Amino acid sequence: MRHAAHADFGHRLTGRGSDGGLTQDGRSQADALAAELSRDAVAAVYASPRLRTRQTAEAIAAVHGLPATVTEALDEIDFGAWTGRSFEELDGQPEWDRWNSRRSVARCPGGESMTEALDRAAAFVDEVGQRHGGQTVVLVTHCDIIRALLCREHGRSLDDILRFEAGPASVVRLSVGAPRKAAA
User: Fold this and answer.
1) Residues 158, 52, 19, 51: is their CA dihedral positive or negative?
2) Letter string b/e over residues 91-120, b meaning 16 or more CB atoms within 10 A of that residue's CB
3) What is the pLDDT of residues 132-161, one digit of tens each?
4) Which residues contact 122 (CB under 8 A, 6 or more apart)?
5) pTM flag (> 0.90)
């Protein structure tokens, strides 16, 4: 699932920069997620190291009496030079436009490619699937990590990443271990 709302949402590309944690609305979203998932038998909760994901994961883990385990594999994309810049400032820049249309080959200036981010997250998802086979596990991560995993799940190119939605505090359920379609 994606972390709940934080103050930069919709305004600034926070990336791996300081996010100040969840807003009051974000805390309410995290509590609502925890309540929704309280009926599920959750075996483990994992989170990206970013404060916004840890706070979301901790709310969910608490209702299950579990720790929220932090893992670098679920971290936000390293946006390099774009970290902390406003979306208004990035809009129309050729590298930003290429990033948003050609994720399969583009790279953040001084940062990570979408393929690298997907590879680390997907390897962790597969590992968790092996470790917790048949159990429900919560992974709290970031919008584009979720979208990339959905591209993988549906056999789509990373160029299709913006076709998937992953709003704050949204839940996506994946069945790990199911056969995958080949990406085009």
Assistant:
1) negative
2) eeeeebeebeeebbebbbeebbbbeebbeb
3) 988 999 999 999 999 999 999 999 999 999
4) 148, 149, 152
5) yes
Tokens of 14: 């926070």
Beta carbons within 10 angstroms of residue 82's beta carbon: 22
170, two tokens = 């949204």
3-state class (DSSP) for residue 42: strand
User: How many Å apart are CA 112 and CA 46, to the nearest integer?
Assistant: 22
Domain ranges of the chain: 24-163
CATH class of the domain defined by 24-163: alpha beta
Type of residue at 127: E
Cα-flanking dihedrals φ and ψ of residue 107, to 5°? Answer: -135, 140
Whether the CB-CB separation of 123 and 73 falls below 8 Å is answered with: yes
Cα–Cα distance measured from residue 29 to residue 4, given in angstroms and rounded to the nearest whole number: 6
Nearest to 151 by CA among 131, 127, 130, 125: 125
List, for residues 52-84, the tens digit of each pLDDT value: 999 999 999 999 999 999 999 999 999 999 999
- pLDDT > 70: what percent of the chain? 96
